[in-house]
Specification:
CATH topology: Hypothetical protein af1432
CATH superfamily: Hypothetical protein af1432
Distance between the termini: 35 Å
Shape: globular
Strand content: under 5%
CATH architecture: Orthogonal Bundle
Order of helices and strands: HHHHHHHHHHHHHHHHH
Structural class: mainly alpha
Radius of gyration: 19 Å
Number of helices: 17
Number of strands: 0
């Protein structure tokens, strides 16, 4: 790490100071508590969410989208919970509120349109890959994909001068993710920051681990399947954004690719489905963005 006094000593220290920058609404934590309480009732959870009209509107718009494909329109949060399940709805709450919270940030150095385009594309791919790998509650991988690079955004906002140095070195070396450069300049990387941020929000441990290790899934404790999913989804998004999917397997970490064990014949259908869902997800989470990116 460079000898600078404006950089916190650890990722955890940086995260502890971001409350003034990004503060998630209380409804997120209330929903978490209720979902984890075996004595809570669906009507109670629905009532809490319904106290936030904007969140309610976003959730109902999402659950009535073609991704879920329900034949009849769902008009209440309680009905949405019955149709998609408590855990799925909990993850939808996190996804929609996080985008609403972070989309207000617009640091000078960051291409925010590109940031959200890549984040939402990675989220959609993560959810599809989780489903293909028979992961329970694949919606949580959508949240992981959506916020896997949130540490980068925090760097831009909280450490702009240091990020100028990171960006300069990335351009000189041609490194895409620049983790080594981040560690050199800052002492920690954006994946560590995202993992610590998820832990501070008390998100599920498996999701914290997945985000923290999405660049190096082989180092994830346990089986590391969810880290592997986020890694492959992230690489897929970058490769597709570059307009070339031929070198997809070579671009992925070999451990992660083997861990998913995705048959070759499933790759193109996954990519096709992801492109279709991405356009809809972009409009659902950031209305009007599909005309701007």
């Amino acid at each position: 790490m460079l000898g600078r006094t404006d950089i916190p000593a650890t990722a955890q220290e940086l995260v502890s100071g971001v409350d003034g920058l990004v503060s998630l609404p209380e409804v997120c934590f209330l929903v978490n508590d209720l979902v984890n309480d075996p004595n809570s009732e669906i009507e109670q959870i629905g009532h809490v969410i319904s106290q936030d009209p904007a969140l309610t509107a976003r959730l109902l718009r999402l659950v009535n989208s073609s991704y879920y494909g329900f034949s009849n329109k769902i008009e209440t949060v309680s009905r949405a919970i019955l149709m998609v399940g408590l855990k799925e709805l909990q993850h939808m709450v996190w996804a929609t509120t996080a985008v609403e919270t972070f989309s207000g940030l617009s640091p000078d150095q960051a291409n925010m349109a590109g940031f959200w385009r890549h984040s939402i594309f990675t989220a959609v791919l993560s959810r599809i890959l989780a489903r293909e790998c028979n992961i329970l509650h694949p919606e949580r991988l959508f949240v992981g994909g959506l916020l896997h690079d949130i540490g980068r955004l925090i760097f831009y906002c909280k450490l702009p001068q240091a990020m100028e140095e990171v960006l300069r070195l990335e351009q000189e070396t041609g490194q895409r993710d620049g983790l080594d450069i981040e560690r050199q300049v800052l002492g920690f990387d954006h994946a560590e920051v995202a993992g610590d941020l998820f832990e501070s929000w008390k998100l599920p441990e498996a999701l914290c681990i997945a985000v923290r290790h999405h660049h190096d899934p082989a180092s994830a404790p346990g089986q590391g399947m969810e880290s592997a999913i986020l890694h492959v989804a992230d690489v897929m998004a970058h490769v597709l954004e570059a307009g070339d999917d031929e070198g997809l397997e070579a671009a992925c970490d070999a451990h992660a690719w083997q861990h998913l064990n995705l048959p070759v014949e499933r790759i193109k259908p996954v990519l096709h489905e992801a492109v279709f869902q991405f356009i809809e997800a972009l409009e659902l989470l950031l209305p009007g963005a599909s005309q701007r990116v």
